[in-house]
Amino acid sequence: MQYQIKTESQRNTAVLDLSNAELPAVMTLGKWKKNRSAEQNALSHVWYAQVAAKLREDTAAGVKGFCKLHFGIPILRTDIDFSQMYDSTIKTLSYEQKIKIMTFPDLFPVTSLMKTDQLSMYLEQIQHHYADRVQLCFPNEPI
Predict the structure, then answer these.
(1) Model pLDDT for residues 86-120, shown as the tens digit of each residue
(2) CA 39 to CA 28: how far, in whole Å?
(3) In terms of C-beta distances under 8 Å and separation of at least 24 residues, what long-range contacts does 77-80 make, across chains too?
(4) Cα(68)–Cα(110) distance, rounded to whole angstroms?
(5) Could you tell me which of 44, 28, 30, 42 has the C-alpha nearest to residue 121?
(6) Where are the domains of the chain?
(7) pLDDT in tens, 22-56
(8) N or C: where does the chain have the smaller number of CB atoms within 10 Å of the terminal CB?
């Protein structure tokens, strides 16, 4: 289970669930971080389109699927719960099946699960991966 604890009531619920948990158990506790920003989300979609337009190897949706699989999944797999869920549902599929799942809108969320620091890392990895073939620009920045 994962909790976002912002109130005393939520804290009490989490403590009760923890005290009733079957042992052995694993618990991860951390400071709450803000979810991704609208600006980061918009930038990722601009970049998917830029890569697709420049390379003409795939659609923007295809580029998004590739990036989610190659950059987003490794970032999210640092979380034990996500890693276990991914391993039990996606890991054993073929590469082609994974790409198809990542490309299909809203079927397997990746970037929408990220915090701002994770999405920053994701964007940096995209920029680095395509650096020698595409000059990724920020919106309203001249090319």
Answers:
(1) 999 999 999 999 999 999 988 999 999 999 999 99
(2) 29
(3) 79/28, 80/26, 80/28
(4) 6
(5) 44
(6) 1-32, 34-130
(7) 888 777 777 665 556 788 888 999 999 999 999 99
(8) C
